Amino acid sequence: MRRRRTRPYIAAREPGADHDVLASAMIAWRGPVEALLTLSLRGLARRCPAAFARLGDHQASTYLLAPADMPIAFTLAPHPQHGAIRVVRRGAAGVHIARVSAPLVDLLALFDGSLDADAAFFCRSIHVEGDVGAVMALHNALESADLRLVDLLPLPAGHDAANAILAHLMRAARRRPASGWV
Amino acid sequence: MLRAAVEAGADSVYCGLRDETNARNFPGLNFDRAELIEATRWAHGRGAKVLVAINTFARAGQTDLWKRSVDTAVAAAADAIIAADLGVLAYAHEAHPRARLHLSVQAAANSSDAIRFYAEAYGVKRVVLPRVLSAPEIAALIKETPVEIEAFVFGGLCVMAEGRCALSSYATGRSPNLSGVCSPPEAVTFDRSPEALTTRLGGLAIDRLGPGDSAGYPTLCKGRFDAFGQTDYLFEEPVSLNAMGLLAALRTAGVRAVKVEGRQRGKAYVARVAAAFRAAIDALDRGDDTTRFERQLTDLAEGGRETAGAYRKTWR
Amino acid sequence: MSDMPIELSLGPLLFNWPAAQVEAFYARIAEAAPVDRVYLGEVVCGKRAPLLADALARSAERLGAAGKTVVWSSMSLPTNPRERRAGRTLAALDDLVEINDISALADRTPGAPFVAGPLLNVYNEGAARELMARGCVRLCANVELPLTSIASLARDCPTLELEVFAFGRLPLALSGRCYHARAHGRHRDTCQYVCDQDPDGMAVRTLDGQEFLAVNGVQTLSHGVQIVDLPPAVLREAGVRALRLSPHTCDMAAIAFAFRRFVDGEIEAAELRAAVRETGPPGALVSGYLRGGAGLRAADQ
After folding, report:
1. ipTM of the predicted structure?
2. Which chain C residue is nearest to residue B85, measuring alpha carbons?
3. Is the same domain home to B188 and B77?
C-alpha cells in the first residue's frame, strides 16, 4: 500500500481533548450544514423516487452514520418527503435502527458506489451495529440510484468539474495507511 | 448494477424480481416489473442478454407468485429463465414452450444423468454446475451431455452443494430454498467489544475476530466452531472463489459460459470483476497468458483470500 | 382415511457403523421394533457402500421375513462413476425404491413406483405432481417444510402418501468436501474412514459452547434431535401417513414403541418425549421446523 506524506486535517487529529473542542465547534455551527444536507437529501428523493421506494419500511427508520475520524456523527432519516440529516455529537443518545462507522472517505465512497461495501467489511474498515437488514436495504437502494458525489454533497448541481475534483480528492485521501484511522 | 456489468464487458447478466422468487431476496435489491422491462430493453440495445432468476422453490399453496414471475420474465423479453424447482420448470415449459430455460445451481445437478433428466423433461438448454466438481470431472461430464454448461468462476463460495443446504433455516427459520436468503440480515448481529468483534446468527456465536483479523460473510459454512477438540473454521475459511487460473482448463473442457457471483454486491465490485474476466477471456482468445489478471481482484475476496474451491481435487 | 393408523418407517442408516453392528442393529429391528417399513442403503458416502453390501443384503432378507417392507435408498449426491453406477443399478429395479437425487430419475422406467426421499427438493404441489407423473407414490417431506406446507401438498395430491422426518438428527446439508476428513487433517480421497469414530456424528459447538451441529462425513446434521410430537389428530388432518425414525445408537426399538403408542393415542406428547429421552438420544429434542420456525427450537417450548 502506498503511503501518503500528509494527511487531511481532521484525520491528523487523534481522538482526545482537542476532539471535544472540535465537536463543540462543529455542533455550534451545525445549523447551516444540516439545512444543506437535508435539502440535498430531499432533492435526491425527488430525482430518484425509485431508490427510496426500495427502502420499503426503512423509509421511516433513522440511521446513525459515524465517521470514525470525526468527533461528530450524522443521523440520516431517508424519508422521501420528510427526510432529514442532522449533525450530532459522537456517542450522543438517540434511537437508531443501526449505526454505521467507517472513515469519512470510505463512508462517502460507499455512498457513491465507488467502494465495494462487502470488501470494506471484509477488511474491517466498516463496522455495523444494530439492524443489519436495514443497512443492507439502505446500501442496495443507494447502489440502485447511480449516484455521484455531487448528488450527495451540497454543491452546485451538474458540475462535472466539481465531481472530478472531489473524486480526485477522495482517491488521494484513500491512499493512506490502514491503521490509525479506525 | 446491470449497466455496470454490461459496460464492463459481460455478455449476459442475471437479475431477479423483487420478491422471494429469486435466491437474492435481500432488502432493497432486484427489479420490479417495469424496471425489468426497461433493463432488458437497454441491455438488448447493447447486445447483452438478460437472464431472469426464478430460482427458489415455490411455497406450497402459493405457487402462483412463481408462475406470475415466469410470465413477467417472458413478457419482458428476457433471454432465458433460470430455475431450480420442478414445479417452476414444468410451468415455464408448458406455458411458454418457446422460452429458453436454464437450470439453476440451486438444483444441484452434478452428473450427466441429472442433466439428462432436466433436458428431456423440461427442455433445459443450459445447466449451471454446483461447486462440488473438479475440473477433470467437469470435462468428463461435458463429454456425456449435449446441454450447454456454465460454471462459477468468481465470488462467494458455497461449500455445501447448492440447494441441498438447510443450515441457515436450522439457525434462523429462513434459508435459500425456503425464502431465497442465506443468513438473513435481520438475524445477523455484530457484538463489538474492545478485544473482539463477535458475529452472531440467530444469537449463535459463529465467529470472533481480533482487531487485525479479516472478516467473512456471516454464514454458517464460514463460521468458526468447536469440534474434535479444535476451534477452527470447520467447513471453510472466509475465502472467495477465484478460478481465473483455471479459465483455460474450463474452456478446453467445453464450458460454454463462466459465471461471476455478486448480485447482492455493488457496482464497484461488478465493474471490476466483469472487466477483469472480460480481459482475461479476450487474452485467452488471442492465445495470450492470463496470469497478470489473476491477482487483480484479491481485495474483493472474503477474508481477503481466494481459493479455486472444488475445481482442484485436493479441496475435498 | 383420516382414522387410518399412522405408519412408522425406519429411515436409512446415515452413519458409518461397522458391518457387524449394522447387521445386529437390523436383526433387533426385525425382531423387536414395531416399524412397518425399513429403508436400507448407504445414502451419504459412496466410499462406505462396498463395506456394507453383504450385511445389508442379509438384513433385507431378515427384515422381509419379519414382515417389514424393505425399500432400497439411493445415494444423495452421487458424483463419481462408481456412485453413479450404483444409482443406475438401483433405478433399474422394478421394486419400490427411495430416490434421494434427481439423477436416479433419468434411468428409472417411467411409472415404476418410487419414494421421493427427504433430500430431494420438493417444496410444493407442482414439484410433487411432476414426481407423481413419473411414479412417485410416497414423499418423505424435506425437513425444512412446515406442517402448513405439508398439509397444502396433501390437499393438492390426495393420493400421495406423505411421510415426515419424526426422529433423529436432521440431515441439513451435503457437500463435495468431507468434514470428518478435514477435521482430522486429511482429504476425502485419503480419509481412512475416520467418520467411523462418531457413530451418531461428530458434535459441533458454537464459540459460546452451545451444541449446534453434527458432522457425518460429507453430510452435516443438526446436533439437536428432531421429535415430531404434534397430536396424531393434527398430523392426520395435515395428511401425514407415516413417521420416519432415523437410526441412532440409542435403542431404536424402544423409540419405535414409544412412537407407536403415541400415534395410537395411548400416550401424550410429554410421555413420548420422556420415553425418547430415556433412551439417551445424542442431543436435545428439537421441533421448530414443523411449526414454521428455526429448526433448532426446543421441543418443549
Report:
1. 0.96
2. C127
3. no
Range of the domain at B188: 167-233
Please list every residue in chain B whose beta carbon sits closer than 8 Å to the beta carbon of residue C104: 113
Q: Is residue C276 part of a domain?
A: yes
Task: Identify whether residues B53 and B201 lie together within a single domain.
Answer: no
Number of other residues whose CB lies within 10 A of the CB of residue A99: 19
Give the DSSP per-residue string, B121-163. Answer: HH---EEEPPTT--HHHHHHHHHT--SEEEEEEEE----EEEE
The answer to whether B91 faces chain C, any CB pair under 8 Å, is: yes
Q: Which amino acid is at A84?
A: A
What residues of C are in contact with residue B167 (Cβ under 8 Å)? 172-173, 213, 220
**Same domain for B121 and B148:** yes
Residues of B in contact with A112 (CB under 8 A): none
Q: Which among A58, A124, A134 has CB closest to B214?
A: A124
Domain assignment present for residue C100? The answer is yes
Cβ of B166 and C144 within 8 Å? yes
In this complex, is the C-beta atom of B136 within 8 Å of any C-beta atom belonging to chain C?
Answer: no
Per the CB < 8 Å rule, is B177 touching C144?
yes
Q: What does A93-129 look like in DSSP terms, one character per residue?
A: ----SEEEEE-HHHHHHHHTTSS-HHHHHHTT--EEE
CB spacing of B86 vs C119 below 8 angstroms: no
Q: Quick one: B51 and B123 in the same domain?
A: yes
Please write the tens of the pLDDT for every residue from A95-127: 899 999 988 888 888 877 777 788 888 878 888
- Among B42, B157, B190, most A C-beta atoms within 10 A, so best to mutate, is B190
Are A67 and A37 in contact by the 8 Å Cβ rule? The answer is no
Residue A83's SS3 state is: coil
| A11 pLDDT tier (thresholds 50, 70, 90) | very low
Give me the domain span that covers residue C11. Answer: 7-168+226-283
Pick the most confident of A45-59, A96-110, A127-141, C97-111.
C97-111
> For the whole model, what pTM was predicted?
0.89
Is A100 within 8 Å of A126 (Cβ atoms)?
yes
Cell 452434478 belongs to residue:
B110
Single-letter code of the amino acid located at B149: I
pLDDT in tens, B190-213: 988 888 999 999 999 999 998 888
B228 near C CB under 8 A: yes
Structurally, chain C folds into a number of domains equal to 1
Chain A residues lying within 8 Å of B304, measured CB to CB: 122-123
Distance CA B75, CA B71 (A): 6
List, for chain B, all residue ranges whose pLDDT scores fall below the cut of 70.
27-28, 263
Instruction: Flag whether residue B109 sits within 8 Å of chain C, measured between CB atoms.
Output: yes
Average pLDDT over residues C264-293: 97
Task: Tell me the three cell numbers of residue B315.
Answer: 479441496
The domain in which residue A51 lies consists of 9-174
Any chains having at least 3 CB pairs less than 8 A from chain C are B
Q: Is residue B162 in some structural domain?
A: no
